[in-house]
Specification:
Layout: E1 7-11, H1 17-27, E2 33-36, H2 38-54, E3 58-65, H3 69-80, E4 86-90, H4 95-108, E5 113-117, H5 125-131, H6 137-151, E6 155-157, H7 163-166, E7 174-177, H8 196-201, E8 206-209, H9 211-214, H10 219-231
Parallel strand pairs: 1-2, 1-8, 2-3, 3-4, 4-5, 5-6, 6-7, 7-8
Helix pairs in contact: 3-4, 4-6
The protein binds ligand LLZGTKA7.
Domain Orotidine 5'-phosphate decarboxylase: 7-226
Keywords: Decarboxylase, Lyase, Pyrimidine biosynthesis
Catalytic activity: orotidine 5'-phosphate + H(+) = UMP + CO2
Length: 235
């Protein structure tokens, strides 16, 4: 990817493996970054991950691992050997969990990026305070991002609305940004959203887009429209 441009990662949140295969055929690497989450991984596992990589895509496996350090690091070991572009773990698992995952990835010699989920883009307002009473979201976000950098992660996943706050902080980390919505459309289960253009201008390294592409009347045209928008923004 051009270092000055924001990349597009398409979230393959489709109901079936064949649906995902069909979509990848039609996408024809207009963007080479695609994301698989728990559903497709549950359906297709390692074999399907390898199939996507063999098709020439850069695969982002978004499993959001969150457990004690030994358990997460021991899962990172075999996942490092798949040829993934990136894997997610949760920053809220703490420094030790992240640092041991990085050490395990490095031990395998893998170049897979480890990305830390900071605060989910769906968690805003009361949804946040219900489960983090008395805790300021912005302080948590900065603490998690800075701990991720200290632990050696390659990037963080955050909301487009967090990018401004993170300016000048945890600067070595990639910003991978879901929660992308056009203006005046339903945000569905996302609460902390912005447009692709606003996210790119605010410093996203990559944006992650699922339903706005997958549920568009012409998904490939929707992906290409977003790529065109991103191509017009430098940061
Ligand atoms: O904080 C997070 C972390 C990950 N995601 C994932 O990104 C996509 C977004 O899908 P949309 O359909 O564009 O809302 C989805 O796969 C999530 O699991 C996120 O949304 N927020």
């Amino acid at each position: 990817m051009d270092n000055n441009k924001c990349g597009l990662i398409v979230a393959l949140d489709l109901p079936s493996l064949d649906g995902a295969r069909d979509f990848l055929d039609r996408l024809d690497k207009a963007t080479k970054y695609v994301k698989v989450g728990p559903r497709l991984y549950a359906l297709g596992g390692v074999a399907f991950a390898k199939e996507i990589i063999d098709r020439g895509y850069e695969l982002f496996l978004d499993l959001k691992l969150h457990d004690i350090p030994n358990t997460v690091a021991s899962a990172v070991e075999p996942l490092s050997e798949l040829g993934l572009w990136a894997l997610t773990i949760h920053t809220s698992g703490g420094y030790e969990m992240m640092a041991r995952s990085v050490a395990m990835r490095d031990k395998t010699g893998s170049r897979m990026k480890l990305l830390g989920i900071t605060v989910l883009t769906s968690l805003g307002g009361e949804l946040w305070s219900d489960v983090h009473p008395g805790c300021d979201m912005q302080q948590a976000l900065v603490g998690r991002a800075e701990t991720a950098q200290r632990a050696g992660l390659d990037g963080i996943v955050c909301s487009p609305l967090d990018l401004e706050l993170l300016k000048g902080r945890a600067e070595k980390l990639l910003r991978v940004v879901p929660g992308i919505r056009a203006k005046k459309v339903s945000t569905e289960d996302q609460t902390r959203v912005a447009t692709a253009k606003d996210a790119a201008e605010a410093g996203a390294s990559y944006i992650v887009v699922g339903r706005p592409i997958l549920e568009a009347a012409d998904p490939i045209a929707a992906a290409k429209d977003i790529l065109k928008t991103l191509g017009e923004v430098s940061h």
